């Protein structure tokens, strides 16, 4: 098949093999191998400059790879012109034509290909994105969320095998963005197309995607279902970038992975003189020095020397509350530990317990099942946004 002819194969997995993009001395995407299953909602998540948008642009044909291949099913689309590829892209800017009606915007791709009868398809697309009755309006007469839906309908009407979404909700306010997250997932499920969504917003990726690939410096740090990445991060970057984590220096002293250890499935750790346990399945490293991790919402604070309402298993004593922040559904506590590190705990504002005050002496409790262990040679601050450091 000529590379300038449009692929004719049926929809199938999108596969990136050894995909690399260099700009002069800078490598934006570094030997990337990735498979996006057909019909899935797939998210590329990472900070600015990690290579996610460059990857998307190479799939769209807007950037030429330095090396590697892009295949869709049995079709090699690596060097096809953008308009020859069975993909469409929805951008953050929407890129609607202001002088055309909503119907004409949605029909633009079909008209360009020579289709005459498009009214029925346009009506079906507007119904899908819940804009029925707005066909005769201009983009300026619509809200930001409605304009986003028009851009989505314009892409979907072309029946692409893959829809690429480049930070599509970035221009919306928080409440509307969350509403559109639900709508995008509904539409993807209804049409059954492969969606590849690029975002730096962790909540957005976890809300919508079946599979998330966390990118850092042009490579995939970890890939999997959102709940697996969140509960079992493989690197300090993933632990910090996908939500928040408390990472405390520790050392494995017993249990699974240690010679002579007899503690079944647990890894036994020494953390600044305290004994802490972790489930072996969540320990990337199970011997020597490690970062001992626990998510803030898993930590239960109790006044010093007072047992928590439910037995937790792990305990770090001697903390002092250094800051209290009310954030609506929960209260965020910063707790300074005897070794000088500040740890974070979230407490749901359920009304079942009194809010602790700054200066209160507290102990931190959590379950061994919520502990994870990471390689101590990694930077404990990797993945932390600069303003959060």
From TrEMBL:
<keyword id="KW-0067">ATP-binding</keyword>
<dbReference type="InterPro" id="IPR013611">
    <property type="entry name" value="Transp-assoc_OB_typ2"/>
</dbReference>
<dbReference type="InterPro" id="IPR003593">
    <property type="entry name" value="AAA+_ATPase"/>
</dbReference>
<feature type="domain" description="ABC transporter">
    <location>
        <begin position="14"/>
        <end position="242"/>
    </location>
</feature>
<keyword id="KW-0813">Transport</keyword>
<dbReference type="InterPro" id="IPR027417">
    <property type="entry name" value="P-loop_NTPase"/>
</dbReference>
<protein>
    <submittedName>
        <fullName>ABC transporter ATP-binding protein</fullName>
    </submittedName>
</protein>
<keyword id="KW-0547">Nucleotide-binding</keyword>
<dbReference type="InterPro" id="IPR017871">
    <property type="entry name" value="ABC_transporter-like_CS"/>
</dbReference>
<dbReference type="InterPro" id="IPR050093">
    <property type="entry name" value="ABC_SmlMolc_Importer"/>
</dbReference>
<dbReference type="GO" id="GO:0005524">
    <property type="term" value="F:ATP binding"/>
</dbReference>
<dbReference type="Pfam" id="PF08402">
    <property type="entry name" value="TOBE_2"/>
</dbReference>
<dbReference type="Pfam" id="PF00005">
    <property type="entry name" value="ABC_tran"/>
</dbReference>
<dbReference type="InterPro" id="IPR008995">
    <property type="entry name" value="Mo/tungstate-bd_C_term_dom"/>
</dbReference>
<dbReference type="InterPro" id="IPR003439">
    <property type="entry name" value="ABC_transporter-like_ATP-bd"/>
</dbReference>
């Amino acid at each position: 098949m000529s590379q300038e002819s449009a692929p004719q194969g049926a929809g199938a997995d999108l596969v990136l093999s050894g995909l690399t993009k260099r700009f002069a001395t800078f490598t934006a995407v570094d030997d990337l191998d990735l498979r996006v299953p057909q019909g899935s909602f797939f998210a590329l998540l990472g900070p600015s400059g990690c290579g996610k948008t460059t990857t998307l642009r190479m799939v769209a044909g807007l950037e030429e790879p330095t090396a590697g291949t892009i295949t869709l099913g049995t079709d090699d689309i690596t060097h096809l012109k953008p308009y020859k590829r069975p993909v469409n892209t929805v951008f953050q800017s929407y890129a609607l034509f202001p002088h055309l009606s909503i119907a004409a915007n949605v029909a633009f791709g079909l008209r360009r290909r020579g289709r005459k009868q498009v009214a029925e398809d346009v009506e079906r697309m507007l119904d899908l994105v819940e804009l029925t009755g707005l066909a005769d309006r201009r983009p300026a007469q619509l809200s930001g969320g409605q304009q986003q839906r028009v851009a989505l309908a314009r892409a979907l009407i072309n029946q692409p095998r893959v829809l690429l979404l480049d930070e599509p909700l970035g221009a919306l306010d928080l409440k509307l963005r969350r509403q559109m997250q639900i709508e995008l997932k509904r539409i993807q499920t209804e049409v059954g197309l492969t969606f590849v969504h690029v975002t730096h917003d962790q909540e957005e990726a976890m809300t919508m995607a079946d599979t998330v690939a966390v990118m850092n410096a042009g490579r995939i740090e970890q890939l999997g279902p959102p709940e697996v990445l969140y509960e079992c991060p493989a690197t300090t970057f993933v632990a910090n970038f996908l939500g928040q984590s408390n990472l405390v220096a520790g050392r494995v002293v017993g249990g699974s992975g240690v010679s002579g250890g007899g503690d079944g499935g647990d890894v036994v750790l020494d953390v600044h003189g305290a004994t802490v346990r972790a489930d072996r399945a969540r320990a990337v490293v199970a011997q020597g020095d490690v970062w001992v991790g626990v998510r803030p919402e898993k930590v239960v604070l109790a006044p010093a020397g007072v047992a928590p309402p439910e037995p937790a298993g792990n305990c770090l004593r001697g903390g002092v509350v250094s800051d209290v922040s009310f954030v609506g559904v929960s209260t965020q506590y910063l707790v300074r530990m005897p070794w000088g590190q500040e740890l974070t705990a979230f407490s749901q504002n359920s009304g079942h317990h009194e809010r602790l005050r700054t200066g209160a002496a507290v102990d931190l409790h959590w379950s061994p099942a919520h502990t994870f262990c990471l390689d101590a040679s990694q930077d404990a601050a990797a993945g932390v946004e600069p303003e959060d450091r």
